[in-house]
Structures are given as structure tokens and as C-alpha cells.
Amino acid sequence: MRIVNLGLLLQLIFISFYLFQIRTFVLQRFGIYAVAYIELVLTIGSLILGIIAIIFRIWTKRTIFVISFGVLMCLWFIVIYLLPESDIPPIQMNLPNEKSFKNQVILRAEEVTGIVEERILWKTANFYMRGGDKLAVIGSNGSGKTTLIKKIINQEAGITISPSIKIGYFAQNLNILANAKTILENVQSTSNHNETLIRTVLARMHFFNEDVYKPVNVLSGGERVKVALTKVFLSDVNTLVLDEPTNYLDVESLEALETLLNEYEGTIIFVSHDRQFIKNIATRILEIQNKELTFFEGTYKQYKTHQSEEKRDLQQDASLLLETKISEVLSRLSVEPSEELEREFQELMKEKRKLEK
Q: Least CB-packed of 181, 267, 325, 347 within 10 Å?
């Protein structure tokens, strides 16, 4: 009978684990693997005790309950860990001025040019952003991406930003970190969120339990990047400006960052060369290429599709123009043949063959 009661006790602990928010606490402090281990021990333990009770022919209502509930616990464990994403609820954050900026035009760039020491990075351009947009700034190295986001941050000539906007800036030099302070102290220094939420986000970035008390000066380069990103993410801001945030991140940290940014209700402007990251995050694209700034309202996938269609349209236009010229030259050749017209005809045919490739 004691075996059955012990099984019931394990199942009571399992229920309490959920009923009294113990699971949430363990998840925040120790991570998902600790939660899974505890649930597995409770589940397997109660099932084994139920089976032992049957072997010793302890046939009671309690035995049947232990076995039945143990099977349900097993099914729960299988379902919850086959879908690990559903285990961690979305981050709920209260952003400053959230009601006043959502879906409203928060940034306008009018007649903005990119010139650095007489070098033209891009010609005059215009674009705008709405609250909640996630804008990817893309282009080759040296095209002027960082110059553009600095113009936005400093609100230089031509840039107008809504008074409701508060910007948090992640730079590659990580100058926002105080090396002598701990991870937790660094994040708390610019955040209005409670410690529970801060620890939850740090756990997402794989800083568990006592890790948060490590001073920044003992961390690796990748860990410092994660702390700086978390600090900006949890600061008292509603617009994130991120310059190459994926540098030095491992795969797990990159996936965690993607999840956080997708859940973020504020506005994001980010520079990145990581195409997959851009595909997963961006809702707007701004490309700097050939000294031109192109703004596209749509995802990266939609942008590439649009480019392909635009390229096909240009090719068709060029092909039609070429066919017209060839027809004109052939008409003239039939009336007044000459070597000059023959050379022109051959050159046009070469162009046609190039277009058809």
C-alpha cells in the first residue's frame, strides 16, 4: 500500500509543479532542461510504482488511479517536448508610448543623401517607417549602411522622428557594457522591467541561474554580444537599432534572438548580411546598391521576387527595343546595302544573343 501512496505523492508533486507556478520559476532560474528532467523523474517514478503495485497484486482504486494518471503524464511529457516552442510563452513587455506609435508613421527620411568626405554613398532618397515595422538595411560592405543608421539615431538633416519614439542602439563595439558590473547589473541599469522578466530573457539567451552574477570582464566575445543585445532589448525604449547583431552568435543564441525579435511589439531597424536572419525577421527592406537607396514594403522573399519580375520586365523592354532596331536596319539593308549597315546589323545580333542567354 505504501508503494501506491508513494506513487500518489509523486503525482501530487507533479500537479503542484504546475498549479503553484513552480514550473515557471524553475524554467526561469534553471532552464528548460531542468524542467524536463524533473517532469521525467516524476512521470517515470509514478509509473514504475504503479507497475510494482500491480506485480504485487495490490488491486485498489488508488492503484488504478496511479497507473491511469501515470499514463496521462507520459502522454503530456511526449506532447510538450515534441513541441518545445510551445513550452516557453511569448515575452510580454510594456513598451513606452506603445499605443501612440503602433502603425503610425514614426520616421520620415526626406531628401536624405549619403556623403562622407566628398564620397557619395547614395544619392538623394526618401522613405518612411511605421511603428512596429522591422526594417532590414542591406547592401555590400562600405555601401553606407552604418552611416544611414547613425543619421537616423542622430536625427540629421532630412530625418524626422516622432516624439513618441525612444531608441536603443546596439553597436558592434559593445560600448554600452560596464565591464566591472555583472550581467544582471548591466541589464538592470537601463531597464524598467522586473527581475523575473529580465531573468527570463537572459535564460532565453542561455544565461541560467548563477550565470547572471558573472562580471562582464570574464565573458567571451560571443557572451558579451548576448549581454549587450539583452540590455538593449530590455531597455526603456520602443525602437531597436541593431548594427550586425548576429556576429559572434552560435546557432542556439541566433535562434533565441530571432524568437525575441519576432515577439517584440516595437520597431526594429537592423543591419545584417545574414540572409536567413533577414528572411526570418524583416517586414520591410531597405537596400543600398549602386549609390541608390531602394525601399521596399514587404519581406525579403517578396523583395527578391519583385526584383526578379522587375529584371524580367527590363529584359523584355530591352528585347523589344532591340527587335525594333534590327527591323529598321534590315529594312535599310534591303534598300541601300552597305558595309556600315552590315556591321551595325551584326552588332545588334550579338546583343540579341547576349539577352537570350
A: 347
0.85 exceeded by pTM = no
Q: Copy the grid coordinates of residue 342.
A: 552590315
The dihedral through the CA atoms of 261, 282, 137, 101 has a sign that is negative
Amino acid at 108: R
Strands 105-116 and 267-271: unpaired
Helix (H, G, I), strand (E, B) or coil at 311: helix
The radius of gyration of the chain from alpha carbons, rounded to an integer in Å, stands at: 30
The pairing of beta strand 167-170 with beta strand 105-116:
unpaired
**Can you read off the three cell numbers belonging to residue 336?**
541601300
**CA 173 from centroid of its chain's CA atoms:** 20
Q: Residue 214 is which amino acid?
A: K
Those residues with Cβ within 8 angstroms of residue 41's Cβ, 6 or more apart along the chain or in another chain: none
190: DSSP letter: T
Write down the CATH number for the domain with range 98-298: 3.40.50.300
Instruction: Count Cβ atoms below 10 Å from residue 84 Cβ, excluding itself.
Output: 10
Residue type at 315 in one-letter notation: Q
CA–CA separation, 118 vs 114, rounded Å?
Answer: 10
Task: For residue 142, give the C-alpha cell.
Answer: 562600405
Alpha-carbon distance of 139 to 162, in angstroms, equals 27
